[in-house]
Write a structure and sequence with these properties.
about 400 residues, alpha/beta, Urease, subunit C, domain 1, TIM Barrel, eight-stranded mixed beta sheet, eight-stranded parallel beta sheet, 16 strands, about 25% strand, hydrolase activity, acting on carbon-nitrogen (but not peptide) bonds, PhnM, Metallo-dep_Hydrolase
Length: about 400
């Protein structure tokens, strides 16, 4: 058995590494046993039996709060549905291979009775059951939690939310409003490009879709938002906003007690979040690409203006670590940048046992080196077990 695959009852030591600690980085070594970090030490010495990391970076495992990746695996094409259990296993392995050791899998609640192939069917309860069963069986490599994406503009939100209880341990519930002309889709031209490209809609079908969705939003927005806020309290979930665009959106979020804003679309909304003590989360693909694919505010610009707290991989799991490295270049501070994908998201989700390299913390650890500015993973451990 290789030294870096030590049994959970034995101590594994990664030595001669650049350790990313809460207070900065040092050259040193880290030891863990039984899923817990048991020792940190300074120096480049490599004790007998330790793994020589040759100066590689050793950091906490990445914490992902909002990813659509599981949905991509269960529906790899708009008309193709994949069996859920093998999709969950494939999704889990992909995230582990990207250095993500804790994930809040985004599952939509709220269906649309649409026409022309653009309706959304119900799937949340069944998928959650399968995910929870796979987690309980020990089949998964990393730590999975559930993030319910409450689609406000939908037909079945209240009924679907009622299917979940505190026993499901829902970690996050976010308020989504994808009504055409609202928030992320405030620009109907951008929305037309997105919908026509994804679903192949004719102009006539698209216009009918916009009309019916707007009409539905006018009827259900207020009662559905109130029901989702109440559900988060009942479930014990962290409540998040999504795609805040205007200052009024942020003020309403603050009134609900929201402390996490996913992907605000404008500088004004991001600044308002900072004023109200709401953490700002932006997408790693936005950072990597240098801008939003939807024409919204650049995450890079928010980072330069000190308005960025947390990064999410969103729809590209491999972007999370790379985005943190890019942030490290922008800020000139890699430990601060890595905190946006480790400690900050862990704390935002109420997980205080991970996200930092410190004695007594959960042994979620990654080892990587930079090759021409690109992070190349050389090891991933989840609760002390090597998973990639």
């Amino acid at each position: 058995m290789p030294k870096d695959h030590a049994p959970m009852t034995e101590i594994l030591t990664l030595a001669n590494a650049r350790l990313i600690l809460p207070e900065g980085d040092i050259t040193g070594r880290i030891s863990f046993r039984g899923g817990e970090i048991v020792e940190l030490a300074h120096g480049s010495a490599v004790p007998a039996g330790a793994v020589d990391c040759e100066g590689d970076i050793v950091a906490p495992g990445l914490v992902e709060l909002h990813t659509d990746n599981l949905e991509r695996h269960i529906r790899p094409r708009p008309s193709a549905h994949w069996p859920h259990k093998p999709a969950i296993v494939a999704h889990d392995a992909e995230l582990a291979g990207c250095g993500i050791t804790t994930v809040f899998d985004a599952i939509r609640v709220g269906s649309i009775e649409g026409k022309g192939g653009i309706g959304w069917s119900r799937y949340a309860r069944d998928l959650a059951d399968e995910l929870l069963a796979m987690r309980a069986s020990g089949a998964l490599k990393i730590s999975h939690h559930i993030h319910l994406r409450a689609e406000i503009c939908s037909h079945s939100l209240i009924e679907e939310l009622a299917q979940f209880g505190p026993e499901d341990r829902i970690g996050i519930l976010s308020l989504m409003d994808h009504t055409p002309g609202q928030r992320q889709f405030a620009d109907l031209g951008q929305y037309a490009t997105y919908m026509k490209g994804k679903h192949g809609l004719s102009e006539e079908v698209f216009q009918e879709h916009v009309r019916t969705r707007k009409a539905l939003g006018e009827v259900v927005r207020a009662p559905h938002e109130a029901a989702a806020v109440e559900a988060a309290q009942r479930l014990g979930a962290v409540l998040a906003s999504h795609d805040d665009t205007e200052v009024d959106h942020v003020i309403r979020s603050a009134g609900h007690g929201i402390a996490l804003a996913e992907f605000p679309t404008t500088r004004e909304a991001a600044r308002a979040c900072r004023d109200h003590g709401i953490a700002v989360m932006m997408g790693a693909p936005n950072l990597v690409r240098g801008g939003s694919h939807s024409g919204n505010v650049s995450a890079m610009d928010l980072a330069r203006e000190d308005l960025l707290d947390i990064v999410s991989s969103d729809y590209v799991p491999a972007a999370l670590l790379y985005a943190a490295v890019l942030l490290g270049e922008i800020w000139g501070d890699l430990p601060r940048a890595l905190a946006t994908v480790t400690r900050a998201p862990a704390h935002a989700a109420g997980l205080m046992d991970r996200g930092s390299l410190a004695e007594g913390m959960r042994a979620d650890v990654i080892r990587f080196r930079l090759v021409e500015g690109v992070p190349v993973l050389r090891g991933v451990w989840s609760a002390g077990a090597r998973v990639a």
